[in-house]
Amino acid sequence: MGTPRYVELAQRLMREIADGTLPVGSRLPSEVELAERHGLSRTTVRSALDLVEELGLVSRRRKLGTVVEATRPRAEYVASMTTLQELIQYAEQTERVLHSVDHVVCDAGLARRLECAPGDGWMHVTMTRVEPQRRDSPICVTDVYLEPELGHAVRDQLSRPDGLICSMVEQRSGRFVVSITQSFRAVLLTERQAELVNAPPRSAGLEITRHYRDRLGVICQITISTHPADRFTYRFDLRRDPGVERGVTGLDR
C-alpha cells in the first residue's frame, strides 16, 4: 500500500523486538549490516532506527551501538484515555459474532470510503456485535478491513466472541495502535445489513468509520460500523479550553 521502506524496516524491527527475536538488552546489527541485509541505504536504515528509538524500544549510544530497551512502546494511545477507554469498554461489554472473512480489492468507491488507493487489497471481516442478554437485536454490523498480513496473523482468533481485534493484532504482530480517527454519518441500512441486525431494510442508521493508526502513523485497521438508529447512542462532552475562556472574559470586560 505504498508504505515507505524505512517504515517497513521499523515495523520489522518492532515485531522482532516484540516476539523476543531481539530480546531486551541485546544489540541490533550496525547500520551497515542492516543496510546490507535488507538492501537499503544507510539513510533509510537510520530513519527506521530513529522511529524505533522514538517509541522507547531502543537506545543508541556511542561505542555501545543500538540496544533494545523495552518490548512495548512507552504509551499505548495518544488521544485522551477517557474517550478511548469508553470505546474499549463498549467493545469488551459486548460479544463479536463472525459472519464472513474474505479478501477485497478496492474499487474507486470503496477506496473513497476507506481513504486508501484504488487497487489496495484488504482482508475483509463481516461481524455483528451483540449484548449477551439481547442476542436477537444486534447492536451493529461491522465491516473490518485489515492489512492482509495482519489479517492472516489473527484469523484463527476472529471467531472468538471476546477481545478486540486491534489487541489481537498487537499481540501477534507488534503493531501497536496509538490513535483512532472517527467519522460519523447518517445512512439507510442495506438489505444485507438489515438482515444481519434484524431491522427493516432502508431504515435509519448511524455509520461510524474508524481508522486505526500505529505509532508510525500507518493505518493498520479500518472499521465501518452501522448501527440501527433505535439501538445505539454515541455520547461525548465538549469543553471550552480554560485559556480560551479567560481570553473571551477579558474581551468582555
Assess the beta-strand content as a share of residues: 25-35%
Counting copies of identical and different chains, the oligomeric state is: single chain
**Class by helix and strand content?**
alpha+beta
Report mean pLDDT, rounded to a whole number. Answer: 84
Taking the sheet with the most strands, its summary is: 6 strands, antiparallel
Fraction in helix: 25-40%
- How far is the first residue's CA from the last residue's CA? 55 Å
Q: What's the arrangement of strands in the largest beta sheet?
A: 3-4-5-8-7-6
Question: What can you tell me about this protein's structure?
Answer:
By secondary structure, the chain is an alpha+beta fold. It has nine helices and eight strands. The protein has a six-stranded antiparallel β-sheet with strand order 3-4-5-8-7-6. The longest helix is centred in the N-terminal third of the chain and has 14 residues. The C terminus is likely disordered.
Write the layout of secondary structure elements.
Blueprint lengths: L4 H14 L12 H8 L3 H13 L3 E4 L3 E4 L12 H12 L2 E11 L2 H7 L6 E10 L9 E7 L1 H7 L10 H9 L3 E12 L2 H7 L6 E11 L4 E10 L13 H11 L1
Helix pairs in contact: 1-3, 2-3, 6-7
Notable characteristics:
about 250 residues, alpha+beta, 6-stranded antiparallel sheet, 9 helices, about 35% helix, disordered C terminus
Quick recap of the structure?
The protein has helices at residues 5-18, 31-38, 42-54, 81-92, 108-114, 148-154, 165-173, 191-197, 242-252; strands at residues 58-61, 65-68, 95-105, 121-130, 140-146, 177-188, 204-214, 219-228.
